[in-house]
Amino acid sequence: MFGSSLGGGLGATQTQPAINPFASSSNKPSPFGSLGLGLQSQQQPQGSSIFGVNTQQPQTASPFGASTFGQPQQNPFSGLIQQPQQQPQPQQAGSLFGQKSVPEQIEQLYDKWNPASSTCAFQHYFYNYVGPEKAPFYRPTPREDEKKWEEALSRKPEAGWVPVIAIGFQELFTRIVTQMQILNAYNTRLHEINGCLEGMLQKHDLLITIRAMDAKRRHIALGQRCLALATKVQVLRNRGYAMGGDEEDLKKKLIELEKGVADPALAGRGEEIWARMVGIRERSKLLQEEMARMGKKTEGNGLNEDVLKQAEKVLSDYAEQISHLKKELAKIQQEFKAWEGE
């Protein structure tokens, strides 16, 4: 197992196939060749290991075979005991199934979470309004992808909006804080505007409304004075001219009203109406007293039906007389006011 002669040593060149209990004499690989011991026959073709490392060996191999990393060894026990400082760095290559290595996957995952990387997964385009006149002057920053920026620009809501990228949670938080500050500033400004409006309303109620009412009152007074002046001017203008039929009728009515007001019989008529009203009041008192006495006599038996009809008739007559007197009084007052207005 350790060679044909002691003089050859453990690392001597073999001229015959070595008798290896773990290797086969055929060209097929050993079933234990992938377990990390690296035991192969001399006729086995050289190639890559399962980890993608070159395992080419010199022809002067030890009885225990080459190391896992294919490095020539002078020590017969170097295949079992490896020195870390003597091993070369493994080359970066794909695995057996074409996947990336673990360090590459870790680096790729780190880039996905790193906001400074262009491949960060936490990217989103927001839109800021700058106005249609300034929007054509905005271009993507060096850290942005121009194609993605153009695509976001094509999806802008309206003219005057430009896309702004936010990468990572920190930039998103900064944007939210900025929006909250702007919103608070707008709210403060709205409160100031509301305060100014309330002050203007109070000033309007205290000053302008009062002045408007005073101006309206003065306008009515001036209108009445202008109407009176126009009437006098018209009378002076038409003095000496012949009046028309309507004017003659109006003149006759006015003369009759003036005579009626100046007639001494009007005062007597008013005194007569007043005396009749006093008499009606006294008669109503007598009727009430008489009804009260009759009510005491007929208490428990009720009033006679004839008495009730007679009282109802008397009261209706008095009501008609009172209504007639009211109409006469209203007519006299109306005529008096018309005469006084002239």
Automatic annotation (TrEMBL):
Entry annotated with the keyword Transport: yes
One record GO biological process: protein localization to nuclear inner membrane
Query: From the record, what ranges are coiled-coil?
Result: 308-342
Enumerate the spans annotated as Nucleoporin Nup54 alpha-helical domain: 142-277
Start-end of Polar residues biased regions: 12-28, 53-62, 68-81
Regions of biased composition (Low complexity) lie at: 29-52, 82-92
Principal place of residence = nucleus
For this UniProt record, the keywords arranged alphabetically read as follows:
Coiled coil, Nucleus, Transport
Q: From the Swiss-Prot or TrEMBL record, what is one GO molecular function term?
A: structural constituent of nuclear pore
Where do the record's region annotations for Disordered lie? 1-96
Please list the residue ranges that the record marks as compositionally biased, kind Gly residues: 1-11
Protein name per its UniProtKB record? Nucleoporin Nup54 alpha-helical domain-containing protein
Say which species the protein is native to. Glutinoglossum americanum
